[in-house]
Amino acid sequence: MNFFLSYIILAEIFAIVALSTNFLVGVIGIFSVSQAAIMGVGAYAYAIAVMAGIPFPLALLLAITLCALLNVATSLPSLRLEGDYFVVTSFGLQIVATAVFMNWSAVTGGTSGIAGIPAPRFSGLSFDEPENFVFLSTFALGLASAGYWLLMRSSYGRTLHAIRLDELAAVAAGRHVLQMKLGISAVSGAYAGLGGALYAIFMSFIDPSSFEIHVSVLILTMLVVGGARTLAGSILGPFIILAVPQMLTLLALPPHLIGPLRSLAFGVILVSFMLWLPKGLAGRKI
Amino acid sequence: MLFLQLIADGLVNGCAIGVVAITFTYVYTTTGVFHVAHAGVFTLGGYLAWYLSKEGIPFVLCVALAMVICAAVGAAIEKGIYEKLLKRQATPLVQLIASLGLLAVLQNLVAILFTPNVLQFESIAWRMKVLHFGPIDLTIPQVLTVFTAFAAVYGLIYFSTKTNLGRRIRAVASNRTLAEITRLKPFEVYVYVMAISSALVVLPSVFIGLDQAMQPYSSVLVLLTAVIAVISGGLGSIRGAFSASLVMGIVQNAVLIVVPGRWSIALTFTLFIVFILFRPTGLFATKIRRAS
Amino acid sequence: MKLFSVAMAAALGILCHAIPAKAQEIVLGAVLPLTGPAAQIGLEEQQGVQFATDRINADGGIRGRKVKFIFEDSQGKPDQGVLAFNRLVDLHNTPSILTAYSSISLALAPLATRKKILVVNPAAQTNKLDDASPFLVNTIPLVRDEVEVMTKYAVAKLGKKAAILYENAAAGVDVRDDFKKAFEASGGTIVADEAIEFGSTNFRASLLKIAAAKPDFVFVGMTVGYPALADQVAQIPGFPIGVGTTFLRPIVGHPAAVGWFHSGIKSGMKPEDEAAFHKQFNVKEMTFFSREYANSAQIIFKLIDDLIAKNKPLTGENLKAALFEIKTFESPTAKIVFNSNTAKREVEIFRATATGRELVQASVN
């Protein structure tokens, strides 16, 4: 049942990316709208590495490390820029990233993308079939969730919340706010990199359209609908949002209306949640 | 004279972006909402005018009607959504996400009502006519873009400094809490501001549509460019936002002399990110702060 | 997990009546960009498929069995395309799927191989589709085949200085690369090379740069936005003539494009069929996309007919085998030959005139 499994797999991958966004938006209060770009870097890095013959674990590690570093770099402006200023910078980063994916053809394959990305094999078991891959993605999400859970319950996690609520007080209390912010950005980047690499493996094809500004907004929608700052919210959101288009295909609508109606439905969902349930289904106040 | 022509076209683009920028900043400094859905109103305005012109209504009337309808839509957005959010003490993040949702609603409403196809104002013959200004050629819609943009800027500045309502809006923008106590009725003021901004943003939308063509999903980039101009110009300054828009329009086209077109967007946004890091207050920061 | 997903899919199936009530009905799928910047093309493609389907059903179906096409929206995005593909195969068990859009077809290719589904591509042209999957067949020649014909003609008749205007998308970039290679190999020089973002309608800066470089002609590799392009070309005095592939066809008829050349993959419909199409969908013209998708649907019908006649099960593998066995598909207006996964078609060259277009070079193979 590939249809249902591919839905689960994609939702799990996006849940990992939603957790990445949650670290920034929910936990520390850095409003990033460019997580799709970071995810894209992870996907490209993995694809390029693996196709250059680097073995799976190393390629994955490379993607994760690169994204962690990059996410620290892209979060740096937030130290200097306040709320809305950073939003615009983040939008800008997303646009620059898409332009680079599209135009740096020598590395990214440009608009033709990269096709035929091989799936890893472990002792004869190939992960290109959804019925096998689902174990990989579930395992990855399990690991990511455990990481999130443990981190939020540690004293580090509690300090992060304190910084979001009152940065000055945290500074006054002798917390190393800068290091903490950069640290959590790195973790968030690593999550996005993991999500991106899994995405590249599962689709076996990537191109710039999968990591555009709309995808960043979609990830944000997932986070908001599920609920920010909780583990359950980040997992619930992707499963619900990805189910909406699937449900709409079940209605007998004229095909040329399906697309705009689906996007319209997303818009209505977003506005309604903000008006009546800004905490999402399982989140806390944002 | 390729270079001069590119600069002239850039100036025209800058004027169009400028009107989006000044109306965005007018909403932002007064209501405090990061009104991304402005791009949706922009799209709606162009398509409304297109639809009316197709029905044989005189062009000037099409623009006027589109402006009136968009003003009503803007007012409805304020009354129906932003006001509710503000009264519930929604954080800026919640407001922004709601606005993103509204943007999706407006764009796709346009796609459903008028098809997602690229549309042209086929019923208007003069849109293709070219005027010559020495070595520079501009189409009539381009010339009109420039005229209406300057009219919008100076009109808005005049309105905001010389009329009672304009001064009331500025008073509310500078301090909402005080405005509430002094019975300036800030929420009523916000509705006016949204209506005015939504009406004005129809102008560049129609003239860009006349000059090139329209597409429901292309306005996001226009808005982002405008927002970048707003920030570079210094939040809260109408003149600053407009000047920065002109600079951006010209720079975007001038770099084409040395850079392939496909890198121009990336280059402009990178320049902005670097600029904002070194000068977060913009070029012409004024004392008007955002309402909080 | 398996049991759960089976149960879920069954539930979904009941919801949308997916499990065919009539065992006799043949269900096929099409993954088309019904929304996004390419939505217009997607709609034309859909109408072509619908037209062919309605026709065959009006004639009593394929050997008495009705045909049904299920349309899925890819939004022009590969991941949505993959989901749509899986939905078609899992819920509807379609042995063959029509695809569209270069990037999506490339994303579907590995799935076609794995699931052994015959994926038929009637319009995407990127060269990578040639050997993307043994189960992916292209019913039109790819970019390189068409560009080769057109370049030869241009070198002989138009000059040795050219500019390129292309869409920054898979097929557009292929046009740029293939033309550049072919043109430079025959001693030509590229004096300007300008990209346009897919779906954009402001071409002025690119056009100005091209005009300023004063080429003998400009090779155009675009799929959408022709009305706006024609308008903006008209506003630039002395703009060079344009040359392009089948995809340049929509610009014919615009005054600014008189004297432009384009290669065309020979195809068409009987006038009475075309009239019926106009009537059914209330459109002025049966476009290239509608024709090609109707044509490709008919090819699939023919394969199914063959399998039913031989009493073989309708599987992707059998369909593929039948395709290479029949090999030549001749309709009154197009001859399609499959020596490899990419069809051989006749390519002609046309010149746009004030009233339409004239044939300037008959078909070469």
Task: Give structural notes.
The complex is a heterotrimer of chains A (about 290), B (about 290) and C (about 375). In chain A, the strands form two sheets. Chain A has a two-stranded antiparallel ribbon with strand order 1-4. In chain A, strands 2-3 form a two-stranded antiparallel ribbon. Chain A starts with a helix and ends in a 10-residue tail after the last helix. Chain A is mainly alpha-helical. Chain A has one domain. Chain A contains 13 helices and four strands. Chain B starts with a helix and ends in a 14-residue tail after the last helix. Chain B contains twelve helices and two strands, in the order H-H-H-H-E-E-H-H-H-H-H-H-H-H. Chain B is about 70% helix and about 5% strand. Chain C is built from eleven helices and 14 strands. In chain C, the strands form three sheets. Chain C has a seven-stranded mixed sheet with strand order 7-6-8-9-10-13-14, sandwiched between helices. In chain C, helix 8 links the parallel strand 8 and strand 9. In chain C, helix 2 runs parallel beside helix 10, helix 3 packs parallel to helix 4 and helix 5 crosses helix 6. Chains in contact: A-B, A-C, B-C. The interface between B and C is medium-sized, with 27 and 31 residues.
Task: Write a short abstract of this structure.
The complex is a heterotrimer of chains A (286), B (292) and C (365). With 286 residues, chain A is mainly α. Chain A has helices at 2-28, 35-51, 56-75, 77-80, 83-103, 105-108, 130-153, 155-165, 167-172, 177-203, 213-226, 231-250, 255-276, and strands spanning 114-115, 121-122, 125-126, 205-206.
Q: Please, what is the average pLDDT of chain A?
A: 88
Q: List how many beta strands of chain B DSSP finds.
A: 2
SSE pattern of chain B, N- to C-terminal: HHHHEEHHHHHHHH
* Poorly predicted parts of chain B: 286-292
Structural class of chain B: mainly alpha
- Which strands sit side by side, in order, in the main sheet of chain A? 1-4
* Tally of helical segments of chain A: 13
Task: Give the distance, in angstroms, between the N- and C-terminal Cα atoms of chain A.
Answer: 38 Å
- Which assembly state applies to the chains in this document? heterotrimer
Terminal Cα span of chain B: 49 Å
Report the β-strand fraction of chain A as a percent range. Answer: under 5%
Radius of gyration of chain B, taken over Cα atoms and rounded to an integer in Å: 19 Å
Which of globular, elongated, flat, extended, rod-shaped describes the shape of chain B? globular
Instruction: Name the helix and strand elements of chain A from N-terminus to C-terminus, one letter apiece.
Output: HHHHHHEEEHHHHEHHH
Instruction: Indicate the low-confidence ranges of chain A by residue numbers.
Output: none
Main sheet record of chain B = 2 strands, antiparallel
Fraction of helical residues of chain A: over 70%
For the biggest β-sheet of chain B, the strand order reads 1-2
Strand content of chain B: under 5%
Form type of chain A: globular
